[in-house]
Design goal:
Elements: H1 2-14, H2 29-44, E1 48-49, E2 56-57, E3 63-66, E4 83-86, H3 87-102
Antiparallel strand pairs: 1-2, 3-4
Length: 114
């Protein structure tokens, strides 16, 4: 597994990609540990405020680890910037970002091959 991860990091660096040690799907131990620490804080310390809607995120409601819009992990955002946000708020933000990118003229394919 370690050799495979090393290969991916080398491949990603060569192809201009950033290999993440934390996978949002919960597939790594580090991601699960980070999420568990936030769950503990929500249960024992109290709610934190969702960065998207400014309402409290409670321990017993669905939430995601979200990042700042101006610093997603894929382009160099840091793990310490991840914090709970309502699941619906995070999904809406992702949908808006996809729609904005799809409507950006710079991202549209040419109308024809010249």
């Amino acid at each position: 597994m370690s050799a495979l991860l090393g290969h991916w990091r080398a491949y990603g660096a060569h192809h201009g990609r950033v290999a993440s040690s934390l996978v949002p799907s919960g597939g790594t131990r580090a991601w699960r540990r980070l999420r568990a620490s936030w769950q503990w804080r929500l249960e024992h310390v109290g709610p934190v405020f969702c960065r998207r809607c400014d309402q409290p995120v409670l321990a017993d409601e669905p939430w995601h680890l979200g990042h700042r819009d101006d610093a997603p992990r894929a382009v160099g955002g840091e793990d310490y910037e991840l914090m709970p946000e309502h699941a619906g708020c995070g999904m809406r933000a992702a949908r808006r970002a996809r729609e904005a990118k799809a409507n950006d003229p710079a991202e549209l394919p040419p109308s024809r091959v010249w």
